[in-house]
Write a structure and sequence with these properties.
219 residues, alpha/beta, Rossmann fold, 8-stranded mixed β-sheet, 8 helices
Length: 219
């Protein structure tokens, strides 16, 4: 969902370059060691963070890890930044950029986990290449994830879920976990689940939440 541009969010982002990389040049490497106090800590990346409820909650719960919220909309980036500043989340950075350049922004085999939460389903066939589980994106994820790193995917869209299962299977991943109704899984699974804004909204409405965890096979 596209957010209405808010001047305060734009101003906030521009005032905090230490916390937000606003549309960096993909031809220039980002020195993440200068943006985290300890870049040797495990790294988690969320693509399409929206208002940031999910990634901010994880960063608050896991100070032993580093997190990067990748979000194209500057208003959403501003909302995430506001949460980061209010909670003093020094282990959270925001990358306001297009995920198509993801492998240019991160060093190879650095991230332990990559989150795809309620991504745009791009339902029209001619837009297939824009889906975040299309083959070219999977190639980028494999490049930046460590050996054994995991992609965690959630959606309320049955069509996107079916497509993603097929796309990932064709690519050669293996699945640690697949659910067609996440919120009715075992208590242990639910206890580890952190809700996004959309997830809470859809679950309250009674919509099933589809989820999977996938790992790439070592070549």
């Amino acid at each position: 969902m596209r957010l209405r541009k808010k001047p305060w969010a734009v101003d906030l982002v521009q005032a905090h370059p230490e916390s937000v990389l606003d549309r960096p040049d993909p031809s220039k490497q980002i020195d993440w060691s200068q943006r985290f106090s300890d870049f040797s800590r495990p790294l988690a990346i969320e693509i399409g963070s929206g208002k940031g409820r999910f990634i901010a909650s994880l960063a608050e719960q896991h100070p032993e890890m580093n997190f990067v919220a990748v979000e194209l909309q500057i208003t959403a980036a501003g909302i995430i930044l506001r949460s980061k500043l209010e909670k003093n989340l020094t282990n959270l950075q925001i990358l306001c950029a297009d995920a198509v350049n993801l492998d240019a922004f991160f060093p190879p085999h650095q991230a332990e986990v990559l989150y795809l939460n309620f991504s745009d389903p791009w339902p029209k066939t001619r837009h297939e290449k824009r889906r975040l589980t299309y083959q070219t994106f999977l190639e980028k994820y494999q490049t930046i994830l460590t050996s054994g790193g995991v992609v965690e995917f959630k959606t309320d869209n049955a069509g996107l879920f079916a497509y993603s299962l097929q796309s990932m299977n064709n690519y050669g991943v293996y699945f640690d976990f697949v659910s067609v109704d996440l919120h009715h899984e075992a208590a242990k699974v639910l206890a580890a689940n952190v809700e996004t804004e959309y997830e809470h909204k859809f679950a309250v409405q009674g919509n099933p939440i589809y989820a999977l965890h996938a790992r790439f096979r070592v070549k």
